[in-house]
Amino acid sequence: MPFDKRLDFFLMESSWSDDPTTLSYWLRWKVLLCAISVVTPMIAAFFIWKYEHLGRRVRKQDDDASWKPCLRNIHPVFLLLYRIFAFSLLIVAMGFDLGIHGFQLFLYYTQWTFTLVTFYFGLGSLLSFYGCFYHLKITNKNRSDLLEDVENGDTYSPLVGKVDETGNGLSGKSEAPPTYGFWDYLFQAVYQMTAGAVTLTDSVYWIVIFPFLSLRDYKMNFLTVVTHTMNAVLLIGDTALNRLQFPCFGFSYFILLTGIYVVFQWIIHACINLWWPYPFLDLSAVHAPIWYLIVAAMHLPCYYLYFGVSKVKNLAFSRCFPDSYMH
User: Fold this and answer.
1) For the segment 87-127, what is each residue's pLDDT rounded down to a tens digit?
2) What's the average model confidence in pLDDT over 182-201?
3) What DSSP letter does each residue of 43-104 carry, written as one string?
């Protein structure tokens, strides 16, 4: 038997007559094992998030990291334009995809990830716009104050509060909009969540689904290729430009996202008897516990693969641009 046929048999073998809306479907040992593979990482991720949330005030956070590029000689407007461009591309692609396939696409984890990436660039565009507006306002105010000091004949002008062309305080302190707070923290969390989810969806699609499986109403076409490549390319481009941190504990956001998706699928199928978007999610499959465990384990290398990309970027930029790189 060819390898792709064996894999298809391994994934798809299940009792198709089983109705997930019946109680007997859920009262089996395989469901319990699958639930352990989903709920246990979610509980661990919650405690990691709680620790990170409580320790957030202790760790140093750059208030301007959400809108400033990582290089001093790149103006913040450049990052703003890139995020607007990326957001526009993603919105257009999502519109075409939904127009062709309908809202049933939101049954797929891929569409959740694509929507999350779109939200990331939309929120990033707003934060960048606000940061650039504040930067321009402060720059103009300081220049006005400087001209007024010169006209009054003052020979000394304090540096505190002054900013240069890139928005950095001349005193060495960062000048950031005062009302970021929650939105800046949310943007950081979405960034870490999105990076892991994009790596997982694109890896699973190109390594497992595309070579061996055919999903219902999800055939290979131009939009499918765009959905599973453009999100990663645009996100890596933003990573190359931004100053956002990519800590290890951000893994918890990624785990919570996937856990919420799986629980959502369980609730939907418990209420409505419909097809599973991914064969390995079907709890009646013979090897369902194994596949749930495999997919759960894949989260770790997927997140830390992008963590490695972030570290390589920091190392390369700090060596190539030692006087301009900010992190």
Assistant:
1) 999 999 999 989 888 888 899 999 999 999 999 999 999 99
2) 92
3) HHHHHHHHHHHHTTTTS---TTTTTSBSBTTS-HHHHHHHHHHHHHHHHHHHHHHHHHH-GG
Question: What is the rounded CA–CA span in Å between residue 117 and residue 83?
Answer: 11
Q: Which residues of 33-60 are buried (b: 16+ CB within 10 A; e: fewer)?
A: ebbebbeebbeebeebbeebeeeeeeee
230-241 and 288-320 helices cross at what angle (nearest 10)?
A: 40
Give the pLDDT confidence score for residue 137 in this predicted structure: 67
Judge whether residue 155 has pLDDT over 80: no
| Confidence at 237, pLDDT banded by 50, 70, 90 | very high
Angle at CA 125, nearest 5°, toward 122 and 130?
Answer: 130
Cα 141 from Cα 137, distance rounded (Å):
6
Task: Tell me the C-alpha distance between 81 and 79, whole Å.
Answer: 5
If you search the block for the tokens 């006005």, which residue do you land on? 144
pLDDT of residue 103: 87
- Whether the CB-CB separation of 90 and 234 falls below 8 Å is answered with yes
